[in-house]
Amino acid sequence: MSAPGRVGVVTVVHGRHEHLALQEAGLAASHRPPDVRVRVAMADPDVTGPDVVALDVAPGRPLPVAAARNLGARTALDGGADVLVFLDVDCVPAPGALAAYAEAVADEPGTVWCGPVTYLEEADRPYRLADLARLDAPHPARPAPAPGERRHDDRWALFWSLSFAVGAAAWERCGGFDEAYEGYGGEDTDLGQRAARAGLRLGWLGAARAYHQHHPTSDPPVQHVADVVRNGRLFRDRWGWWPMGGWLEAFEARGLVRRVGDDGDDWVVAT
């Protein structure tokens, strides 16, 4: 068993400052605090501090989430990180999450590790760190091993970027996120395919739990329909199949998109 390396925690930020504050509190309460902390502020001048890297966004352009995550990873690696932990700004890590990620990456550096994520209810606000373990109920659409359990599951379509960890060498092997994706959706599924192509494995780590703070959203995310169609087509051109199929069908039912092409295998935003 190798010794755990230096952990860099990367979070991409655009708003959600209260959520970011609770995430910072969770990191401060970690059994193993991060060695390197990077917050990438996308067109968000209100996020400041020595661990902040600013990323400008041209007016009217979609947020460059993939590029921001890659910038965060480069910054963390340049700062001496051996293990990259990516946390969505809404996610609060459990106290043992970072240590569990570091140990798992040290043991199996060829595996990309994801932790179970609980979607917290709005009714449970205000969220307190001491209450999160009691509210633990991982999302049913993803594997959720028990604390202390590791599980391999190479269904890369299940990979998500809310909370995951990867070693520096494995990150270089897969090449990071594809920066052609802009805005909402697709870039994490694409990263999973890139990791699979690079020969990496997918693992689910029961001790690396995280808690996703509630925020208003639409289901399906109708405010992101153009991003979903654009990024979905890019993914199809890369990998031969459409991701986010459930969303596209829900958009179709609302008259927001329509199928085109000889076999109805393409989607466009309805006009």
From TrEMBL:
It comes from the Bacteria. Residues 161-215 form the Galactosyltransferase C-terminal domain. InterPro entries: Galactosyl_T_C, Nucleotide-diphossugar_trans. Keywords: Glycosyltransferase, Transferase. Pathway: Cell wall biogenesis; cell wall polysaccharide biosynthesis. Belongs to the glycosyltransferase 2 family. This is Glycosyltransferase. It comes from Nocardioides marinquilinus. The lineage of its organism: Bacteria, Bacillati, Actinomycetota, Actinomycetes, Propionibacteriales.
